[in-house]
């Protein structure tokens, strides 16, 4: 109650009307809430501050989105009290599977590639080299057997062009 009529301290008669003025509360400053989903977290904070928000809380979460991308925001309403806490969750980055590298030494190149693909590897390169080993057999792998690596890591296989053919000298 901010005011009365009659004023406080006035003696009233039974049945006399009293008027009360009631406050609607403090003036609340509001701002249009920007949609920051999909933005880099630093850019999202900049956009929120530019809109007038000052209480911004962030948390890194697991997500299949790229590292630092905002994946959720607590307020999505059109207009929000600028003193509200705005909670943002942003991606810790995609989790890439890791696998122990198998040995493909001595295997035919196409078999070796099949083995690597079956283990989830996706970045397989290969190069023909001079060797006395059978044609198309793997003579070197860039990642040693047993090493645990991401399935997107580059693996290079060197395979034999085959033994050099020699001709017998003619007499």
Which secondary structure elements does this structure contain, and how are they paired or packed?
Layout: E1 3-5, E2 19-21, E3 30-32, H1 41-50, E4 56-61, E5 70-73, E6 79-81, E7 86-91, E8 98-100, H2 109-118, E9 123-129, E10 138-141, E11 148-150, E12 154-160
Parallel strand pairs: 4-7, 9-12
Antiparallel strand pairs: 1-2, 3-6, 5-7, 8-11, 10-12
Structure commentary:
By secondary structure, this protein is mainly β. It has 2 helices and 12 strands; from the N terminus they run βββαβββββαββββ. The chain has helices at about 40-50, 110-120, and strands spanning about 5, 20, 30, 55-60, 70-75, 80, 85-90, 100, 125-130, 140, 150, 155-160. The strands form 5 sheets. It has a 3-stranded mixed β-sheet, covered by helices on one side. A 3-stranded mixed β-sheet has the order 9-12-10, covered by helices on one side. Strands 1-2 form a two-stranded antiparallel sheet. It is rod-shaped, with a radius of gyration of 36 Å.
Characteristics of this structure?
mainly beta, 3-stranded mixed β-sheet
Structure at a glance:
It is built from two helices and twelve strands, in the order βββαβββββαββββ.
In whole angstroms, how far apart are the ends? 124 Å
Task: Spell out the helices and strands N to C.
Answer: EEEHEEEEEHEEEE
Percentage of residues assigned to helices: 10-25%
Structural class: mainly beta
Tertiary shape = rod-shaped
Say how many strands there are: 12
């Amino acid at each position: 109650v901010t005011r009365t009529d009659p004023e406080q301290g006035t003696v009233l008669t039974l049945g006399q009307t009293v008027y009360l003025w009631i406050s609607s509360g403090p003036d609340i400053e509001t701002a249009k809430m920007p949609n920051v989903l999909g933005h880099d977290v630093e850019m999202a904070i900049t956009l929120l501050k530019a809109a007038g928000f000052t209480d911004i809380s962030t948390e890194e979460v697991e997500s299949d989105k790229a590292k630092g991308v905002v994946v959720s925001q607590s307020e999505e309403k059109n207009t929000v009290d600028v003193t509200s806490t705005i909670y943002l969750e942003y991606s810790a980055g995609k989790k890439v599977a890791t696998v122990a590298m198998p040995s493909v030494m001595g295997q035919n190149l196409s078999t070796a590639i099949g083995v690597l693909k079956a283990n989830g590897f996706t970045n397989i390169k290969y190069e023909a080299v001079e060797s006395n080993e059978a044609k198309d057999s793997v003579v070197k792998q860039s990642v040693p057997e047993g090493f645990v690596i991401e399935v997107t890591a580059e693996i290079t296989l060197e395979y034999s062009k085959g033994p050099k053919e020699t001709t017998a000298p003619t007499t």
